[in-house]
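re the bet — no i am not wrong, look at it urself. input seq straight from the record:
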Amino acid sequence: MADFIIAVRYTFKEEGGREKAVKEMAESGVLAAIRNEDGCLTYDYYLPVEDPKSLALYEEWESAEHQKIHMTQPHMKTALEIMGKYTESVTIKRLTVSEL
């Protein structure tokens, strides 16, 4: 079970930007590298249908420490450069999940 969950919402400068960013992230190998990191349980993008200039990222990590280490990995510099070319703004929220 994930101990640390975050949701990231990217808003892109122009329509088509999210598709370019996701394609570049995949082709660069960054997505594969992130998903293979120790402690990464989920790292998935979702495309809001109603808003072609936004992208949601859902991340689940075994712990906050795993996610903290993730942010220091060399491929994250590439990820930030890629996303920075296309994005206008980024919002990050930590999610709390309660047991039902």
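see?? The chain has one domain: 4-94. told u. also Strands lie at 4-12, 40-46, 54-61, 87-95. so pay up
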